[in-house]
Design a protein that fits this description.
Elements: H1 4-22, H2 39-46, E1 49-50, H3 70-80, E2 87-90, H4 97-104, E3 108-113, H5 116-133, E4 151-154, E5 169-174, H6 209-226, E6 227-237, E7 240-242, E8 245-247, H7 249-260, E9 263-271, E10 294-301
Parallel strand pairs: 1-9, 2-3, 2-5, 3-4, 5-6
Antiparallel strand pairs: 6-10, 7-8, 9-10
Helix pairs in contact: 3-4, 4-5, 6-7
The structure holds S-adenosylmethionine.
Length: about 300
Amino acid sequence: MPSSKQEAAKHDSANRKSTKTKQPKPARKPRKHCNALDGRQWIKNSISVWSDVRKQTGETKLGHPASFPEMLVERLIETFLPLDGESVLDPFAGSGSTLVAAERAGKCGIGLEISPEYVETANARLLALREDGGEETPTDAKQPDGSSGSVVHCDSATNLLTYVSPDSIDLCITSPPYWNILNQRRTADMKAVRHYGNRPDDLGVIEDYEEFLTATTKVLADVFTGLKPGAYCCVIVMDLRKKNRFFPLHSDLATRLVDVGYVLDDLIIWNRQAEYNNLRPLGYPSVFRVNKVHEYIVLMQKPRDAK
Ligand SMILES: C[S@@+](CC[C@H](N)C(=O)[O-])C[C@H]1O[C@@H](n2cnc3c(N)ncnc32)[C@H](O)[C@@H]1O
């Protein structure tokens, strides 16, 4: 037979249970959003291979040998620019794809480009966007110095910090020259050699691979200084081959950027296979060679607690 003590304990525990169930659940703190993507877009952008990124008709006629599609920049902006972010930097602006996509998204692009012809192309694209865009075009977004509208400076990226203050930029999206590879014969599809113009400060004319890596790292170290803590730097590069030697540019650069202080956050593969319609059997039949039809988007991040 249960004692009265046991009965009382049972009674107490039943009481505790019933009070517990009656307690209202504490309200969940709203989670902070890092971007404005909905769940469907979030999944799409999170897939590690991007195969649907294409240039639009006008973009194929820009006359730049390595311009990237605005669509690529749009996707990186919607994914990696913080909700309150405004400024998007490209120290190797080329034909201005980063700046045009930033401005189309209502943000401010800041670019440097060493070739006056490409600066002209970039400015013409920005002007056309402003003239065509009407209501949809910008914007209240401001440059870190308070001015509005995207700008491209005709100068070497080695002078970046004369245009950009420390801890002021929300996102960097850039594609440095692919070493001096554009001066080489294109073995994959035998298309004509096209280069950027071979100016003395052009990183694409440096002969020595280590020197090229050092010079590119130096520019991206200045980008690190210019980024706000926590901001991303998306570097778009391709691995390279010269005759018998393979150069894993994406990983060589990432290793150096980690030494600068960046965190290597992840990699996305940009699959460009649809653009290669004239592939040859490289090395056939004596030595098997890989036809590279992808580039890497190397996602580097300035740590949130960076000093
Ligand atoms: C891969 S392309 C970038 C293309 C660009 N993303 C676009 O969509 O047009 C690299 C660019 O870097 C430029 N460049 C090379 N050395 C430079 C330097 N020291 N400073 C600034 N730009 C440089 C080249 O002229 C070229 O336009």
